[in-house]
Amino acid sequence: MSGMMTRRGALGAIGSGMSALLAGCAQLFPTTYRFRMTVAVDTPQGLRTGSSVMEISVKEASWRIADSARAGVHLKGQAVAVDLPLGRTLFALLTDEGRGEIMTGVTRALYPGFVGGADHFIEAAPKLAAMRNGPPREMAREDYPLLVTFADIRDPTSVARVDPEDLAATFGSGMRLRRISVAVTDEAISTGIDERLGWLGSYRNKTFAGNRFAIEPTLSDSLMAGAFTTESVQ
User: What pTM was estimated for this model as a whole?
Assistant: First the structure.
């Protein structure tokens, strides 16, 4: 009888170990949710919009320190491009105006009560992933992505910041940003921005000013291809 109990105990221990192992393995796979960001601009010729589908992945760390959850949060996708009159283009980048990634601001719009940080991403991610599709929600002004344009779209050094409160200063009278919104979706991640910006692949490892590291306090010397796409464009 004691031998049987010992065997049962051993099997129980093995079962518990397998459960723990499987739980650990589950953490190897991130939780992902996709969203469509849409930028709407009022122009003298009517409303112009552009959108891009992106994905946020959240992977909880296998180990916790002092019961505080930690997570890796990553963004995949490309900038939004809005075609405007007179051949100009407005871009909403993958970074915000503080040059951080847009993931916190996007998730704040999609998930009411979200304040940022690893624990909140871990809480929000499975709920947003389960939605598959959702209504559009406006982003708060302080969470807007960085808006830019090019005086000459063939010349990366001609990049210029666009004030979301005053598009007319850059594009002319009658131009106004109506809204930037995000909506959960299960559509495919957008690609192909390198077809619009044929030179983009040359700036994976250097700034638009041509430097490996930023030297001048200019916008062109602080942006690389990664602000426009997470793809490995050629």
Answer: 0.85
